[in-house]
């Protein structure tokens, strides 16, 4: 399984970087680097979704990859931003001091995957379509146990117990689609509707939601928050609230992988909560081509007898 996982990731990388030297003229030539760090430390807990790292690079040349062909643009009038990202997520039960299998609780699970995405925006129609394909691994080969233990050791914190019972190794192959539509767009206030869906071996669900933004800011649909254009506002600040209601079909971090069904412990399908709500809220401060975000998230229980949960995020976005 370990060797197959390496081959799988190398195959993705080969597909991504089969780029031709020449480039078409694109509607958007902005380039972005994004980094997000999630941790429930910001909510004074150490359970469930306990840590996540997201790193993304958006470059016009990524339009020329093989995998870009299965991503969906809005049309010839759209501004298209193609990106490659890497993401890690770690999940634990409500206590990391329980020796053995913690029955009735979330299993330990680690995920690592690479993604190829397209953010396609029609400014005139205040409409954005984001499509993404994720490929990677879930299970011990993702090194979630080593990551959490290393962080706890560095912080001189208690060592987590129970990772030997984590969800077994399996492949991640998921496709995501998200539609965002501006419903109210004023200079200092925006209201945006959201509909998204995920299908594959990791997550199968559909969501409806909305975003509220208020402050001194670029329009949500003008760019990805920052731009190289000289006429754009140099300083931005705004607060936001984002709410989503999700209908859950399958969640491999709780139910185990779809291909390898040999996990020692998973949550039965009947115990999965089928409707889950999540609220995100935070503040963004930007100057010229750099923005900083601090936000919090709260999610309702995801399984029977589970607890509501929260975590914080620190985000950095650079345009170059």
Would you kindly provide a written description of the structure presented here, covering whatever features stand out?
With 320 residues, the chain is mainly beta. The protein has one domain: Lipocalin (Beta Barrel). Helix content is 9%, strand content 48%. The protein contains three helices and twelve strands. A twelve-stranded antiparallel barrel has the order 1-2-3-4-5-6-7-8-9-10-11-12. About 2% of the residues have low confidence.
List key phrases describing it.
320 residues; mainly beta
Task: Write a short abstract of this structure.
The protein has 320 residues and is mainly beta. The protein has 3 helices and 12 strands; from the N terminus they run αβββββαββββαβββ.
How is the secondary structure organized here?
Elements: H1 2-16, E1 32-39, E2 48-58, E3 79-92, E4 109-122, E5 127-138, H2 144-154, E6 170-185, E7 189-200, E8 203-216, E9 235-251, H3 252-255, E10 275-287, E11 290-299, E12 309-319
Antiparallel strand pairs: 1-2, 1-12, 2-3, 3-4, 4-5, 5-6, 6-7, 7-8, 8-9, 9-10, 10-11, 11-12
Query: What structural class results from the helix and strand content?
Result: mainly beta
Our count of domains comes out at 1
Helix tally equals 3
- Strands ordered across the widest β-sheet: 1-2-3-4-5-6-7-8-9-10-11-12
Mean pLDDT: 91
CATH hierarchy, class:
Mainly Beta
CATH topology: Lipocalin
How much β-strand is present in the residues?
Answer: over 45%
**For the terminal residues, how far apart are their CA atoms?**
39 Å
Global morphology: globular
Order of helices and strands: HEEEEEHEEEEHEEE
Radius of gyration: 20 Å
- According to CATH, the homologous superfamily is Outer membrane protein
**How many beta-strand runs?**
12
Biggest sheet statistics: 12 strands, antiparallel, barrel
CATH architecture: Beta Barrel
Low-confidence stretches: 20-26
What fraction, in percent, of the residue positions are helical?
A: under 10%
